[in-house]
Structures are given as C-alpha cells and as structure tokens.
Amino acid sequence: MPIRGEGVYLRPSEMRDYLEWSSLRERSRTFLTPWEPIWPVDDLTRASFRYRVRRHAEEMARDEAYSFFVFREEDDVLLGGLSFGHVRRGVSQAATLGYWMGEPYAGKGYMTRAVRASCAYIFEKQGLHRIEAACLPTNEPSKRLLERVGFKHEGYARSYLNINGQWRDHLLFALLETDPIPPGKPV
C-alpha cells in the first residue's frame, strides 16, 4: 500500500528498516536536534524501534494516526519520515502533520514531494478535511515547504511544543481538502 509521489514513495515502518533508520537518525542527530523533542536515551535501540513499529500499526488500525517512512524511488533509500497524528473525526475531520528528513537528503525537494503525495492520500483515502502543521518561526526550510505544498499561515502559538528541552513558539499552518495542492515543480 505504498503512497507514490514524484520520485518518492511512503509506507509504514517495518522491523527490516531498523538498521537503515537508526543509522540515518544517528548521522542526522546534530542536524535534527534544534527541531525535535529531546530524544530518549534508548531512542535508537532495536527494542525502542520495535515498540515504535507496533505502536504505529496500532494507531493506524484505530484510525488515530498514520505514520510513514519516505523512500527514494530509484534505489529504495530511506530519506526520512512523516506522520499525520491526532486524527480527529466527527465534525472536525482533521489531523496534524509532522515530518523529519535525514541530513544527507535535506534541501533536495524529497520532503516536499512526500508531503504533497501524502496529503493527497489523507484527503482522498482517509476522508479528512483539514491538515494542520506547525513549525518554529526560525525554521525557514519548513515554512517554505509548507507554503510550496499549499498550506496557509493561520496563526502563532506561544510556547506550543517542547523542542530540544524548551517550550517554543510555533507558526501554525493548515491545508484544507478544498485548497489546491500545487503540482510538482522545482524546489
């Protein structure tokens, strides 16, 4: 059930991904640290990854979250990951988008293409109406990515998420199913 995009595909994580995932995360640690919560001490262990794979599968089965790894189509290399968490049904029909990219692949347009493809999937196959995203005001690449995919800036949340050990303000963005998702173009 891979989700196909321009030169990328997304699928849920599997135990066979552990070595590639842990290697990419470790090599990208310094690059990712300013944008993520503090990693638990055991974050890159096989046991922690096993728990993560199981939890993601359970969340998908319960329609609570949809988590995917992003791979380069030409050689099946793991590039990063993204998730649609906090799925809300009923009158809301919304989820929150989060993503990370391994340092060697950042700035090459892969995540833009992955977000574009996965948002289409969430709207068309999961029937959601709204996707929300937040990023640090200083994270220019993330702001540009969201705007390229068609997200609209909607607000500012003070002390919104605990990033790298500090409560940090975030810019809030959203994409509606009725918003046009711009077609792929150079990034």
TrEMBL record:
SUPFAM superfamilies: Acyl-CoA N-acyltransferases (Nat). Keywords: Acyltransferase, Transferase. It comes from Methylocystis iwaonis. Residues 22-182 form the N-acetyltransferase domain. The keyword ATP-binding does not apply. Pfam families: Acetyltransf_3. PANTHER family: [RIBOSOMAL PROTEIN US5]-ALANINE N-ACETYLTRANSFERASE, GNAT FAMILY, PUTATIVE (AFU_ORTHOLOGUE AFUA_3G00765)-RELATED-RELATED. PROSITE patterns: GNAT (PS51186). The gene is rimJ. The keyword Ribosomal protein does not apply. Belongs to the acetyltransferase family. RimJ subfamily. This is Ribosomal-protein-alanine N-acetyltransferase.
